[in-house]
Write a structure and sequence with these properties.
The complex is a heterodimer.
Chain A lengths: L3 E3 L6 E3 L3 E6 L1 H19 L2 E6 L9 H6 L9 E5 L12 H17 L5 E6 L13 H11 L5 E8 L5 H10 L2 E4 L2 E4 L6 H8 L1
Parallel strand pairs in A: 3-7, 3-8, 4-5, 4-6, 6-7
Antiparallel strand pairs in A: 1-2, 8-9
Helix pairs in contact in A: 3-4, 4-5, 4-6
Chain B lengths: L2 H35 L3 H15 L3 E7 L3 E3 L1 H4 L15 H9 L6 E2 L7 E9 L2 E10 L5 H57 L2 H13 L3 E5 L4 E5 L12 H14 L3 E3 L2 E6 L7 E6 L7 H41 L3 H10 L8 E9 L5 H14 L5 E5 L2 E6 L5 H12 L3 E10 L5 H17 L6 E3 L5 H6 L5 H21 L3 H10 L4 H8 L3 H15 L6 H26 L1
Helix pairs in contact in B: 1-2, 1-5, 2-5, 5-6, 5-8, 6-8, 10-11, 12-18, 14-18, 15-16, 15-17, 15-18, 16-17
Classes of the chains: A alpha/beta, B alpha+beta.
Chain lengths: ~200, ~575
């Protein structure tokens, strides 16, 4: 197994274990990124896990056609909605969400996939619901989860909807940033313990 | 805590602070990229403003732009209602006064209720744009202030980029709009030029302007008569303004040098060489015609001007050729030349003709008005189409023997009153006959003048002895005859400035009836009796004697003929 995986955008790749925050503007750019990222994963034989925000229910059936029009998916693509994952039971719990990832990714690897490629649309965090204020702590905790399995996780943030203060904190908690068609290393991202300590 | 432990703790704290600072720097770098990518000023300011609390322990007071004043956070998010800073507890006027005097480097400002307030400059390539104003209860660390300064610098650059981009986009849009306008204008020009070249006439021009604009289009002559229409809802009958209102409208259009709106219509005049020959009308009751429609209307009016100038030139040429032909015929011309010229005009000169001389005037002296009235009457009554103005009268070459009185009444009707007398010459069988017929018509008219009667038609063919006398080549015998019978009376009239010959003429023409003669001369019966007595005494003739009366009547007619002939000779 190679440690480098194709991102789906020409010239860009990620390493297994990467936790990447990706900034985009609007739905059409989101769809392009999702299509490229999941399409490359499906072609590579990765298990693809996609969590979309609930307001886009209608977009789910169209996604497979967009990313892989000519081949059957055969359960390789696992699509979830935010209200069934991040906001299950009407609130956000970092621990519950980490358990979800552990179950989904763990079972994928156990069933023979070499790599799990996950993507989460993060606009759910803008809703006025219990627990959403723990988003940044969750992102920091996620860095502990990444090394457990051969996986990459892409977190999607819409620049038209998130404020600068959240973005700065998000940037501090992600080792890599996908922005403006480039993947930037963030060598000064704060380790979970550092970030969490600073927050407290 | 031991000294070593304390030292170790400080070192760890310092390292954490450094890592935090570096992490913030990295975040600032990415924020800078995001702001620079954006083309929207509000998005840029929104990102910068909302990032402030994450980069330093302080809050945002607001963004002040040199060209726009305070920008509210809500405004950053895209709302347009208000320019109150999101955290505007500071006295705005007080802060603004300080900012104005602060200069491009920024610095501290005093704000009530704030321990520390600082204006970080927003700078672009073109200069100073404004300030990012932040405040805190205590001054942030130098590292945090460094981050805020960097944030403001990057926001300023992104702002300048966005403005430059917007300016370029606006320039490009203006250019594109100009190109579109030019293309449209060229298309209009091409379409109307094709109409002109193809000779589609006034109907073609109306149709082209209608197709280019989508509005109904009318072509009117100067007087408001419809000449062509294109499009739906053609009015029937076509409405026509009163003359005064029409002239007022035309003066307005000429004065403004562009199409004008009147009621639900846009009007442009076709005005080659200063004369208004026609009006192009765009029917637009809703007033929705725009600049492009005006361009099409103006181009259409230009092409209409060319078309009407061409038509007028043709008409002028034909009129000139007709006039020259009439002049040649009246003056006596080579027959072949006249026939060839007439053939070129499509006129059959080989039909029998008569020359008529029409004299008169409108109530107000206007030779043009009289000429046009004669031309219209000649056309309407079918008298003829060849004519020329000569010495205040109009000479008509008539190819018909219709009612000349009907023609005379038509002239008077066209003039709206005034006077009209007609002399009609004898028949012309060949072109060489026209000078004779013209002389005869002129003679008949002069004889009518001398009769002091009411205006009428006098035909040479009806003149009887006058006609015979006027046609004699040698008139010396006639003159001798007149002198022998009227010589003493003529000498007396010349000496005393009296009217004895005219009185005698009238008496004899009235068949010796006293009352009729007194009425014709407008004198009292006793005056007439006195004059007749003087005539008897001076001439020595007995007016009751039949032979004397015959010779005297012949002499008076001969005298009138000679006088008319002499007047004709002196007139030519």
């Amino acid at each position: 197994m190679s440690d480098s995986i194709e991102l789906g955008i020409p010239g860009l790749s990620l390493d297994v274990g990467d936790h990447v925050c990706c900034f985009y503007r609007g739905r059409s750019e989101r769809d392009r990124i999702l299509g490229s990222y999941l399409g490359a994963g499906l072609r590579s034989g990765d298990r693809c896990v996609c969590v979309l925000d609930g307001i886009d229910q209608g977009a789910v059936p169209a996604l497979p056609d967009q990313v892989l029009p000519d081949e059957p998916l055969g359960g390789q693509l696992d699509v979830h909605m935010s209200q069934d994952t991040y906001l299950r039971d009407g609130s956000f719990s970092p621990a519950a969400m980490l358990t979800f990832w552990n179950d989904v990714v763990g079972s994928a690897i156990a069933s023979g996939y070499l790599v799990s490629r996950a993507v989460g649309e993060m606009t759910w965090a803008l809703r006025q619901m219990p627990g959403v204020e723990e988003l940044v702590e969750y992102e920091a905790e996620l860095n502990y989860f990444l090394p457990r399995y051969p996986q990459v996780i892409l977190c999607l943030y819409d620049l038209e909807r998130f404020d600068g203060d959240i973005l700065v904190d998000i940037l501090k908690t992600h080792p890599k940033v996908l922005v403006g068609g480039m993947v930037l290393d963030n060598p000064y991202y704060l380790e979970p313990a550092e970030f969490l300590a600073a927050r407290r | 805590m031991t000294t070593v432990e304390a030292h170790s703790h400080r070192a760890r704290a310092s390292e954490e602070e450094l890592r935090e600072q570096l992490s913030n720097m990295q975040a600032l770098l990415v924020l800078s990229m995001l702001m620079t990518e954006s083309r929207d000023e509000r998005q840029i300011l929104h990102l910068a403003c909302t990032a402030v609390p994450s980069l330093a322990r302080c809050g945002l007071e607001g963004v002040y732009l040199v060209d726009a004043g305070w920008v509210a956070l809500d405004d950053c998010r895209g709302d347009d209602d208000g320019r109150i800073p999101d955290r505007g507890a500071v006295g705005l006027a007080q802060v603004v006064d300080q900012l104005i005097h602060l200069g491009a480097g920024g610095g501290g400002v005093a704000a009530e209720g704030r321990g520390w307030t600082w204006a970080f400059p927003l700078r672009g390539m073109e200069g100073h744009l404004g300030y990012l104003v932040v405040s805190a209860s205590v001054a942030p660390s130098p590292g945090e202030q460094f981050l805020l300064r960097g944030l403001a610098q990057q926001a300023g650059i992104a702002l300048a980029n966005a403005r430059l981009h917007a300016s370029q986009r606006a320039t490009a849009e203006t250019l594109a709009a100009t190109v579109r306008t030019l293309e449209r204008s060229t298309a209009i020009h091409d379409r109307l030029t094709r109409v002109g070249v193809a000779g589609e006439g006034q109907a073609g021009i109306a149709r082209a302007v209608h197709e280019l604009t989508g509005f109904p289009v009318a072509v009117e002559d100067r007087y408001g008569n419809l000449r062509a229409w294109a499009g739906p809802h053609r009015p029937d009958p076509y409405p026509k303004d009163p003359v005064a209102r029409r002239e007022q409208m035309l003066r307005r259009v000429i004065r403004e040098h562009r199409p004008v709106r009147e009621g639900g219509r846009l009007l442009a005049v076709a005005q080659p060489r200063g004369d208004v020959l026609g009006v192009l009308v765009l029917v637009d009751p809703a007033g929705s015609a725009g600049e492009q429609e005006l361009v099409a209307l103006e181009h259409g009016a230009t092409v209409l001007s060319m078309e009407l100038a061409r038509l007028r030139s043709l008409a002028d040429t034909e009129l000139r050729v007709r006039r020259e032909l009439v002049d040649e015929l009246l003056g006596g011309t080579d027959e072949d030349s006249a026939l060839a010229r007439a053939q070129a005009l499509g006129y059959d000169l080989e039909r029998p003709h008569r020359v008529a001389v029409v004299d008169g005037r409108a109530r107000a002296r206007d030779d043009d008005a009289f000429f046009h009235a004669v031309r219209r009457a000649a056309r309407d009554s079918g008298v003829g189409s060849l004519m020329v103005a000569r010495g205040g009268a109009v000479v008509v070459l008539s190819d018909t023997d219709g009612s000349w009185e009907v023609f005379r009444q038509a002239v008077l009707s066209g003039l709206g009153g005034g006077r009209c007398r007609v002399g009609v010459g004898g028949r012309c069988e060949r072109p060489q006959d026209f000078p004779r017929s013209y002389r005869e018509a002129s003679f008949a008219l002069r004889l009518q003048e001398r009769s002091n009667g009411s205006d009428q038609v006098t035909s040479f063919d009806d003149l009887g002895v006058y006609g015979i006398l006027s046609g004699m080549d040698d008139i010396t015998g006639v003159e001798r005859f007149v002198r022998s019978w009227l010589g003493d009376l003529l000498a007396y009239d010349a000496r005393k400035h009296s009217d004895l010959v005219a009185t005698l003429t009238s008496y004899l023409e009235c068949g010796g009836n006293y009352d009729a003669t007194a009425g014709a001369l407008a004198v009292h019966r006793s005056t007439l009796k006195y004059r007749l007595q003087r005539i008897r005494e001076i001439s020595g003739h007995d007016l009751s004697e039949a032979d004397a009366r015959f010779n005297l009547q012949l002499a008076t007619r001969a005298w009138a003929t000679l006088t008319a002939l002499r007047e004709g000779t002196s007139a030519t």
